[in-house]
Amino acid sequence: MTEVPRPAPAPGRGPLLEGERVLVRRKEGESYLLALQRGTTLIDGLGVIDLTAAIGAPEGAEVEIAGRPSRVYRPSLPDLVSQMRRRSQIITPKDAVTLVYLAGVVPGSTVLEAGSGSGGLTLFLAEFVGPQGHVVSYDRRPEHQKVARDNLQRSGLGDRVTFREKDVREGFEEQGVDAVLLDLPEPWEVLHAGRAALRPGGYLATYTPTYNQLERSVRALREEGFQEVRSLEMLERGLHVGEGGTRPEFDMLGHTGFLASGRKMA
Amino acid sequence: MTEVPRPAPAPGRGPLLEGERVLVRRKEGESYLLALQRGTTLIDGLGVIDLTAAIGAPEGAEVEIAGRPSRVYRPSLPDLVSQMRRRSQIITPKDAVTLVYLAGVVPGSTVLEAGSGSGGLTLFLAEFVGPQGHVVSYDRRPEHQKVARDNLQRSGLGDRVTFREKDVREGFEEQGVDAVLLDLPEPWEVLHAGRAALRPGGYLATYTPTYNQLERSVRALREEGFQEVRSLEMLERGLHVGEGGTRPEFDMLGHTGFLASGRKMA
Amino acid sequence: MTEVPRPAPAPGRGPLLEGERVLVRRKEGESYLLALQRGTTLIDGLGVIDLTAAIGAPEGAEVEIAGRPSRVYRPSLPDLVSQMRRRSQIITPKDAVTLVYLAGVVPGSTVLEAGSGSGGLTLFLAEFVGPQGHVVSYDRRPEHQKVARDNLQRSGLGDRVTFREKDVREGFEEQGVDAVLLDLPEPWEVLHAGRAALRPGGYLATYTPTYNQLERSVRALREEGFQEVRSLEMLERGLHVGEGGTRPEFDMLGHTGFLASGRKMA
Amino acid sequence: MTEVPRPAPAPGRGPLLEGERVLVRRKEGESYLLALQRGTTLIDGLGVIDLTAAIGAPEGAEVEIAGRPSRVYRPSLPDLVSQMRRRSQIITPKDAVTLVYLAGVVPGSTVLEAGSGSGGLTLFLAEFVGPQGHVVSYDRRPEHQKVARDNLQRSGLGDRVTFREKDVREGFEEQGVDAVLLDLPEPWEVLHAGRAALRPGGYLATYTPTYNQLERSVRALREEGFQEVRSLEMLERGLHVGEGGTRPEFDMLGHTGFLASGRKMA
Question: Looking at chain D, which residue has its C-alpha nearest residue A232?
Fold first, then answer.
């Protein structure tokens, strides 16, 4: 087997390390997001557990929890999404990854976000900016931001995010950032401030549930001088492969939100 | 203004550097992906240009090209996509980012891909694995791989990708990788090899145009012992905000491909 | 006011007639499909009612039922659909009207249908063939056909339909008909018989839930010599106009069935 | 073979009659909508033809046109749609049949329509109201109405339609009708007049391209006291069954129009 060429040892590879966030998957199917710690801990819904045996073991290591065989993995982004605690409806993965793309967010990016909500989009941003990027997440509602902060902390990505409890209508504190993402009821009120915070070439994107909000956002993007303005929606259709054949799923989410984006050019 | 906290200076920020890939945008709208070099160069379709003035300047710096004012930016992922040269139909961004998500690809990931095609998915993978990740892209057709290789080189992400001219039905050369992505006519032939190359917890995802291929892929994923098997399609609907009001775009791509994914658990 | 020119007094216009099927709508919203009869009747869920006052009255006449004001209307096709009793999932209106169109069903048409199911499609066919057309509905399962027969009788369109308790794989008893509609698990087994029953220029249409069934149906239509073969699906997306603006409904039926049609040409 | 029970000989069945509208289909595929007349006629694009042999013959009768074998059929509704001459974009069949359903249009209905446009919706209404129903089609633009009138005449359904060259903002001339269909830029201006023209229990439906128009229509329907207000859109997705398997068509119409309907209750 050939070694994959790689500039440096990738983060989050190799044996599981003490203190890392891990996903513990019991044989019956439930999964838990936990810190890999030495000794016994009391976990809600699990009882007393001991993960010591997994420290230094490879991914997929077997441990016994409450008498049942379980396995320990590094959590993937889909794992982190499924383990989020929600105060309100969180953004769907399809919309989150599309916003990441439309806003040009890549490893190393510095990104502003408002509002934090339950941290659903924050999680995607924190994951994709990577260890060398950073996210600043604004919300004026302390109770929402607490949920977001807890979710990011539990996901192990908390140190990539700075939370600011502030109304962004008073302006962003940063400038020269790569992207601004707005999941707000009235994003048009913040476009001027968002543009001021962007570097030339950077993107601003909005996420809103109604056509009225989308329309007003797009018109405001144009009025503020944004270029390459786009607007779209993503529909996800599940597919069922069963004994009797293949068909689309009967259940489908008919709507989540409309996406718009624009770019600040010099 | 507050400084954004950041572990280290992010790559690709600050003044434009000699040798970097840049996007030169002329006032009339056309854009060119070029290397930022000292002195004059002859560029197809542009004539003789001189980008010397942009070296050391901030993003958005003005230069004059063939007598017309132009601006120099670092290319975003959407820029790189729009600048790709296609040998065949390339994957749409909506499908590429969804595959990135389904396969758990994040900064630092090591990813295998087959086939390279024109490098459309390769570009997304190379971007999102970041400077500490790596992509190995297999294709047995030298003429396709050449296009993919050129596209990745032009995008400035070529050093994150190893190309292998090989039929993956003979197996992958790597193991312990985070994700395997298959854009092949008969992905089921490669699922066993793909599973062998994955680390525990890693994902394999397929992208195929017909239901027949999707069905066979999903059945094979189950037979090979993959878990968390999912299949879906993404539909993108553009929205038009015009003088007369807002409506979905009349033009829509009715179909691109079906996506399936599964996870290797110990 | 000008009189609308009309070849003859339209059926089902003018004062409500004794014996007609009527929709009784109580002020609170529930509706009942009843025969307009003289004297008192005991109705499940309504108690003893007396509709005598509505006989000879115009549509919308007020009657009192169990002490509450109610109105009497001629039932519309949407009313009849909502009043159907279901043994199983019935066809959606969007699919039923599309099948009517694809199969060229118009007032005066003679149409064969298999199977009857709960009579969902039968109802649409009986309505649109009008008083001069006819529907023959086959089902080999007596318990299904009883439900269909009762539904058509309750709708007041029962005399436009002949039910045959028979397996259509043994052939249709009619020939020279205008259209054949198949809502069967294996429609391809019946295409030859269906073609034999059609007049030149007539259409056969199928309705099946899986891609596998659709594919096999379309291939069989071609092999049997049908022309103008088409296949498609219809998606209905509800729209919500609320205080806060307009957006697509969150709930959506992701799939019902695939439609295919072909035409017998000489 | 059993005779299909039928109250009376259906119209448009039996041998082809002199004077009837027929579809002449040449072996190469083109079709022509013509009157079945004795003797020779000069037809644009066909040359001199003689259909005498088809008079009294059954459907599918063979005639020779310009030296090529051709067949004569009664035109189906899909045939009539494909033979329409368009001044502007005409309504798609999916929207036309859905409007027919939402508005409760059935054989025998009397229906008002505004505007006539090219007669696309008029054709569906004229077909489905049958020989005992009637359509009154308003348009204030003589040049549009001429196209609609010609299309209906060519289709053989012209005697089911009364055209009125009039602005419906001045009111409808009829009352007690079963349904009112509005394909106008500002349908809300006509809802009051439309409601006045309806019988109790009758439906009004609108068809508009933008969300803004839909929203205003729905709000106006509610303000005018309409009940059972619905709004939706229909998406048609073609399916391709080819050698290599089955998949949705790549081409898709992303948008046509939004539909809304309401009912006048006493």
Answer: D254
Q: Residue B1's pLDDT is what?
A: 42
The fold of C80-236+252-263 is: Rossmann fold (3.40.50)
The pTM assigned to this predicted structure is 0.94
CATH number for the B21-73 domain, one of 3.60.20.30, 3.30.1380.10, 3.10.330.20, 3.40.50.1980? 3.10.330.20
Q: C134, D5: Cβ pair inside 8 Å? A: yes
Question: How many Cβ contacts (< 8 angstroms) between chains B and C?
Answer: 7
Do the Cβ atoms of C215 and B212 come within 8 Å? yes
Residue-wise pLDDT tens digits, C90-117: 899 999 999 999 999 999 999 999 999 9
Neighbours of chain D (3+ CB pairs under 8 A): A, B, C
Q: Do D59 and C199 touch (CB under 8 A)?
A: yes
Let me know the angle formed at the C-alpha of A130 by A126 and A135, rounded to the nearest 5 degrees: 35
Please state the domain extents for chain B: 21-73, 80-263
Burial of B64 (0-12, 13-18, 19+ CB in 10 A): exposed
* CATH number attached to the domain at B80-263: 3.40.50.150
Residue A171 CB-density burial (10 A; 0-12 exposed, 13-18 middle, 19+ buried) = middle
Q: Does residue C99 sit in helix, strand or coil? A: helix
Smallest Cβ–Cβ distance between A252 and the set C209, C211, C254 belongs to C254
- Gap between the Cα atoms of A160 and A174, Å rounded: 16
CA A124 to chain centre: 2
Look at A226-235, B12-21, D129-138, D148-157 and tell me which has the smallest mean pLDDT.
B12-21
User: What pLDDT shows up at residue D1?
Assistant: 43
Taking an 8 Å cut-off on Cβ atoms, the answer to whether B238 and D248 are in contact is no
Picking from A5, A102, A130, the nearest residue to B162 by CB comes out as A5
Kindly provide the ipTM of the predicted complex, given to two decimals. Answer: 0.94
